[in-house]
Structure formats: structure tokens, C-alpha cells
Amino acid sequence: MNVQLNTVSDTRKSLVITLDKDEVDAEHQAVLGEYVRLARLPGFRPGKAPAPLVVKRFAKEIADEFKQKLVTKAYRDALEKEKLAVLSVVSVEEGTIERGAPAAITVTVDVRPDFTLPDYVGLPTQVPSVEPTFDEIDGVIQALRSEGADFKPAERPARKGDYIKLAYEGSLGGRPIAEIAGDKQLYAKVPQTWEEVEGTNEGIIPGLGRHLAGVEKGGKKSVAITFPADFKPVPALAGKTADYALDIQEVRERILPELNADFFKAHHVDDLEGLKRQVRADLKVHKERRNHAAQRSQVTQALADRVMFEPPHSLVEAETQSVLRQFIEENMRRGIAPEQFEKDKKELFEGARKAAANRVKIQLILAKVAEAEKFVVSDDDLDLYIRREAARSKQRPDKIAKDLAKDRNALRSVQESIIFDKSVDFLVSKARVTESQS
Fold first, then answer.
1. Domain residue spans of the chain
2. Which fold, 150-255?
3. Among 138, 178, 300, 346, which is most buried by a count of CB atoms within 10 Å?
4. Separation of CA 246 from chain center
5. What predicted TM-score, i.e. pTM, was given to this entire model?
6. Who's near 9: CB < 8 A, 6+ residues apart?
């Protein structure tokens, strides 16, 4: 066997493998011998049928297996000879493979890029303080009170925080919106709905709550609503200013519960100070988790910025498709029309490819960190993954374990994910931390 290694790029190699006639015939004879040994033909005991009859009966099967085994063996022997760290097989060109003739096989592969790890201990990270402020603690307590709020009719003009029961009907340039809204009639006319006065959350009609301060029960009001330029539910309204006639049916005042013994008992504390301590602890845990996530992103990007290499093309292409699928699925859940994806196809692909190249680069760097630190995946690591996945997906742990045992690619993906997490957590544990002012 002769192997010629050609360099297509820093991460793509071409192996031209040539085998002489004797090597080809030896592999063919090995496959034929196995078929003769196992073949069951009428009138012959197993393994006793003449080879010509076996060849005649299983000609196609023998030819297919012969080619497959010859290509596989040639590829494996070539890798062993050239000591390549293959990440993916890009293509296999078999040429003519038949008994009694030499064969040439060309295998194109993407290989692990050759780069030197920079110093990865003491990478700089910057995160805000985890200590909650008095305003944050008070904000949480007020939110807890709001969750238990009661709403009572108010015979007065509406003010911020009140809820208004109303009906509305819209028009655009004198034309009823009902004629252009299609199946989205909520944006045209409703007989009854609730809106918060100057609330933080947008209702169905963008900005409607900002027009409700001062209205009273039984009153009527006309307001102008300007829709965002990228308004997706009713494209005909995007960037336009529509008129809405409002019929005010009721004003309700938000009554917050008192900070008393009943309130404290409901939140498993004895008094206000106990509630503040609980809120402070919860906020601190939340901020620590947020900071840890930020540090993970910072250390991986810092490493990516310090190492210059072109990530393998095939891995980037596969990751690009994954990024695109994830982006499209998330945006479809948010109501973005498929037509919008087609319109922005070029920009979406370019953005996804850039993100994918960065992801692949980071994964290759983390794999090298894992090698340097000799991280391995233990049985305990896999058990922890299975328990977490079972809790997340509401499946039995034993089912997840059996599925992984049957799917080598899935198991390999899980093991890689665990190794990456170990590498990132190690980098964070060794990072240099400074506290930002925000």
C-alpha cells in the first residue's frame, strides 16, 4: 500500500491510497472465505458448498462487502501511517475496485488544527457585585406584594397601576382595521379587555396603557397608536398610526396586602427583617449564577481571541445548520412568519456562519485544555448527566441510559459536552476577577 498525503488547507488533507493487485485480491479472498464458511446452500452442509456456487449465489453481497472492507482497511491503515487526528471525513472517491486489478482510493478529511495553547490560567473576567442593593430588595418585596394584590372598583380617575376594563375599535385612515387584520381581529375590535395604566408590560395594542391615566368609568376616549416599524402580527399596521375609540367600562385600584403576620407566614418568615434576609439571600444566589454564566462566556471568548487558526470547514458547516435551526425555531415560537426568514436569508446565514465558526473554534480550544489538564469522563459524571436529563425531560433515568448505550454518536456527544463543561469550569475557577461598577 502506498499513501500520498496532499494538503488542501491547514485543516483539510487528501489521502491518495493505492493498493497493488495482490493486496486487493487478498482482501477479496478473505471476504469470499468468510461467505464460504457461513453460506447455507441447498444440498450442502454449512461451510461445505463449493466457492463458485457461493460466488454465484451471493455475487452482489460479496462485491459490496469486499469494496466496503477494502476501503475501510485502506483508510485505517493510511491514518495509522500518517498519524492524522481526523475530525470528519469529507469525501471518499473509490475509483474502480475489482478483483485482479490494483485500486486507488482518495479520502478527503478535515483534521484537528495545529495550534499552541496560550496561558489559560488567570484569564481576566469582570462581573458586577453579587451584593443586593436596598432598592433591589425592596423591589422584590413589592413584587411579592403585587402577586397577592386585590383589585377593587375605584370611583375616581384612573392613575398609574390601576387596571381598566374597556372596549376598543380601531381604524386606519378612516378604514376599519377589522377589514385589514385578517384572523388577528384582536388588533381591530374587542368588546372587553383589561389594560394596566402605564404598566411595564405591553398589552395587545402597543402603548395603549400610556393613554389611560385620567379616564373614568363610563367615559369615552379616542387615542392615536403608532405601531412599531417591525410589527409582525398585522404587517399592514407596521409603522402606521391608527385611531382607536375607547369605551371605559370600569376602573379598578390595586390594593397591596399589608406587611403583617399573615403575609410573613405565607412567605415562611417571622417578620420584615426575616423577609429581607430571605430576599437578600435569593438575590445573591441569582447574581452568583448570572456572574458564573458571564464568566464562562468571557473566559472562552478570551481564549478564542488569543488563538489564531481557521476552524475546519466541515465542522463549521454542520454547526451553521444547527445555529440556523435553533434561531428559526425560537423565532417561530415568538410568532415570526416563515416569509421573513426567506427575506432575510442572506443576513441570517452570514450571522449563523460567523457564530458557528466561533463555537467550533472554542470547542477545539477547550478540547486541548482538557487534554492538557487530563480531564476524563467518569461514571459519576455520566450518572449526574442522566439524572439531570431525566429531571429536565421527565423521563426515567434507566431509559436515557439505555438510549445512550444504543447510540454511540449520542454518547460521544454527551461525553464531549461533559469534557467542555469541565474545561470551562476549570478556566473560571482559575480566572482573575474584577468587580464592575454596574
1. 2-111, 150-255, 272-435
2. Chitinase A; domain 3 (3.10.50)
3. 300
4. 43
5. 0.73
6. 310, 313
